[in-house]
Specification:
single chain, alpha+beta, Aminopeptidase, six-stranded mixed sheet, five-stranded antiparallel sheet
């Protein structure tokens, strides 16, 4: 099992599947289809997502009880890599390569499991695109299958540290532009400084979010991902703001991007937008634009609904600092059935240069998944 699993993971790493103008997941998708056609008797469906990008849905029954999922894209390789990111390399007991942790090792385990003769009945495997970007793959699957399937559990191999993850906070991203009033810097009271007023707005937003009690998902958090301001000079050909930088003029416009990880349903895109609009009125700011780019809720599966994992003696991952996991969308659409993630990588290696997976942990992951999904 070891040699086959490592060779398969290495092959997947060698196929670029990040998304830019020249590259996407189509080549790795074709490899997965050919692999399953050659080595399994699963019924395979190719679900088109965009012109040449597609999900792969493979099943051994039309009555699906267990849905196993994994994304086939990676982040783009950074320039800080000291190795060739698509030339897998084993050093000591680690396999290096882009996606080795996130999550081509998990895809290899899915493929190895899918071809086993002792696979339990009523299992389906979803290999999907675009998890690292805009979630269009999982959204397309939900659009097509949410009324056709009634699974009893969902397992994602996009996990970490051989630990079970059973929940995550939500994700809200907003792009906001506010306008103040320009004036001479010598008479600031005659103007409205869009930058300093935005600072007050964000601080009030943080205080409001912190009023909600810490939950089992931890405390909500807010990140100021981008901020830029100055004197409004118009728009360029791409409708981007053109801003002046003169020190003797009060800045009359400020653009900022906020990302919020809410721990409860009261904090959502609409409630945050409403709060910001109210704050702008109080701070004499005019909203030029407020756009909700992402708005996803929380997910939580109680441990007692995952009781069948107890005999595996696995740890549960702390979920109060976990990032958003797209299994949440499936959990919500499929009536909040039991869901969990598990994987073999480490948090510090995902999306990092010189990414690697520990080989012994990867082999252990395969053993765990076999126990969950096969008749033994």
């Amino acid at each position: 099992m070891k040699n086959t699993l490592i060779k398969l993971t290495s092959k997947l790493i060698s196929i670029p599947s990040w998304v830019d103008e020249k590259t996407n997941e189509s080549k790795i998708g074709e490899f997965i289809i050919k692999y399953l056609e050659k080595n399994s008797n699963l019924k395979i469906e190719k679900q088109m997502v965009t012109n040449n990008r597609f999900n792969i849905f493979a099943k051994n029954s039309d009555d699906i009880e267990t849905l196993v999922i994994g994304h086939i894209d990676t982040v783009q390789p950074s320039k800080s890599w000291t190795k060739n990111p698509i030339a897998p390399e084993i050093i000591k007991d680690n396999l290096y390569g882009l996606g080795s942790t996130d999550m081509k090792s998990g895809i290899a385990v899915m493929l190895q499991t899918a071809i086993l003769k002792k696979l339990k009945p009523n299992i389906a495997f979803l290999f999907y695109v675009d998890e690292e970007y805009k979630f269009i793959g999982i959204k397309k699957f939900i659009d097509n299958y949410s009324n056709k399937l009634k699974p009893k559990q969902i397992i994602s191999l996009d996990g970490l540290e051989l630990s079970i993850c059973n929940g995550c906070r939500g994700l809200i991203k907003l792009n906001i532009i506010v306008k103040g009033k320009s004036a001479h810097a010598a008479t600031p009271n005659e103007g409205i400084n869009a930058i300093t007023q935005t600072y007050l707005l964000i601080q009030n937003l943080i205080n409001w979010i912190n009023k909600f009690n810490k939950s089992r998902l931890g405390q909500s958090s807010i990140n100021i991902a981008y901020i830029n301001g100055g004197q409004y000079k118009g728009l360029d050909s791409n409708n981007n703001l053109i801003l002046g930088k003169q020190g003797n003029i009060i800045p009359d416009i400020c653009q900022f991007v906020l990302e919020i990880r809410p721990n409860n349903t009261y904090i959502n895109g609409n409630s945050v937008s409403k709060f910001i609009k109210n704050q702008c009125q109080q701070l004499n700011l005019v909203i030029y634009e407020i756009k909700i780019c992402e708005d996803y809720k929380q997910w939580f599966t109680p441990k007692n609904r995952l009781y069948y994992l107890n005999n595996l003696n696995l740890n549960y991952k702390k979920i109060d600092t976990t990032g958003f996991i797209d299994i949440q969308m499936l959990w919500e659409k499929f009536n909040k059935i039991p869901c969990f993630t598990i994987g073999a990588g480490e948090q510090s290696k995902a999306h990092s240069s010189d990414e690697y997976i520990n080989i012994q942990k990867l082999i252990k992951l395969q053993e765990i998944v076999n126990k969950i999904l096969t008749l033994y």
